Amino acid sequence: MTTIIDCMAVGKSFKGKSAVKDLSFQMKKGEVVALLGPNGAGKSTTIQMLLGLMEPSVGRVTISGQNPKLKAVRERIGVMLQEVRLLDTVTVKEILQLVRGYYPRPLSMEQLTRLTGLDESSLNTRTEKLSGGQKQRVSFALALAGNPDMLFLDEPTTGMDAIARKTFWKSIRELAERGTTIIFTTHYLDEVEVAATRVLMMNHGELIEDATPAMMKKKLGMQRISFLTDAVYRPETYQGLAATDIRIDGKKVTILTGNADHSLKILYALELEISEVTVNRGTLEEAYSQLTDSPEVS
C-alpha cells in the first residue's frame, strides 16, 4: 500500500524541554488512525508538525513524499479542529461555496450535504445562529470541501448528539473505503473501537504503542470471568487461576485475569458448583489506563 504520511525520528523542543521525542511512524492510504494520549502527551504538537504548521526540531515529516508546507500538498488536506470558528453574517451555504472555490477539485454541494447530514434548513441558516452540534457538522463539511486525500480531525464529535455522531462515523468509513487517509483524536474510546483501524498511543512525548484496537485489548486489557454459585467458597479456593483479582458479591464471583482461556481451564478442572459463566474480554479503556497510567483521554 502507498505510504501517505511518513514521520521519521521527529522531535520537538520548546525552551529546552521536549514535547515530542524520537517519533516515527507511517500511515498508508485508506488507514483510519486514532492518536490517543493524556494531556501533555504531545498529540497537538504532532498534528501541527504533520500539517506543516510547526517545524520539527529534529527529524522529518513528509506527506506523499513531499514537504507538508507545499501548496500542492495543502490542497489535498482537510482539517477539522476542536474549536470551531466560522465567519459571521453569512449562511452555511455561502461559506461552503466560498471555501470550495479555493480548491481545484472540490466536492459538490450534494456530496457535502450527504456526507455531513446538513439539510436545506441548515444550509440557509446564518452561521452565528448555529448550535454547537450544527457548527461541528459545518466544520466537517469545510474539511471535506476540497475533496481531500487526507483528513486531520481533532475531537470531531464534541457537541454532536448520538444521531449526528453515527452519521459522522458512517461517512468516515465511506471516505476510508474510497482511499482517504484519516487521523483523529478523541476522548470517546468507543469511537476508536468502531472507527479506527489502528491506534497510536502517546505519553510524555513518546509513542508507546502502535497497534490495532483489538491487538491492544488482547495484549493489555484485563479479562473478566463471571459466574454464579450457591456454594460458599473461600477466596483461597480460586487460587491457581492466574487471577490478578477475585471479587465475591453474594452468589456472583468475578475473576480478573490476563489469560481467560487458561483461567477457565483451571476453573472447570476444579469441578465447582457454578453456573452462568460469562467471559468479557479486555476493554480499550483498560488498555489505555495500563499504558498511560491515566484515566483521562484528551
Secondary structure layout plus pairing:
Blueprint lengths: L2 E12 L2 E12 L3 E5 L6 H8 L7 E6 L7 H4 L2 E4 L11 H9 L8 H8 L3 H4 L8 H13 L5 E5 L7 H17 L2 E5 L3 H7 L2 E6 L2 E6 L1 H8 L2 E6 L14 E7 L2 E6 L2 H10 L5 E6 L3 H9 L6
Parallel strand pairs: 3-7, 3-8, 5-6, 6-7
Antiparallel strand pairs: 1-2, 1-4, 8-9, 10-12, 10-13, 11-12
Helix pairs in contact: 4-6, 9-11
Q: Provide the CATH topology of the largest domain.
A: Rossmann fold
Q: Average pLDDT across residues?
A: 88
Categorize the overall geometry.
globular
Beta strand %: 25-35%
- Rg is 23 Å
Structural class: alpha/beta
- Listing every helix as H and every strand as E from the N terminus to the C terminus, the arrangement reads EEEHEHEHHHHEHEHEEHEEEHEH
If helices are DSSP runs of H or I spanning 4 or more residues, what is the number of helices? Answer: 11
Low-pLDDT sequence parts: 294-298
Gap between N and C termini, in Å?
A: 31 Å
Strand count: 13
What can you tell me about this protein's structure?
The chain has 11 helices and 13 strands. It is an alpha/beta fold and 298 residues long. It has 2 domains: 215 residues, P-loop containing nucleotide triphosphate hydrolases (Rossmann fold); 60 residues, Alpha-Beta Plaits (2-Layer Sandwich). It has a 6-stranded mixed sheet with strand order 5-6-7-3-8-9. The C terminus is likely disordered.
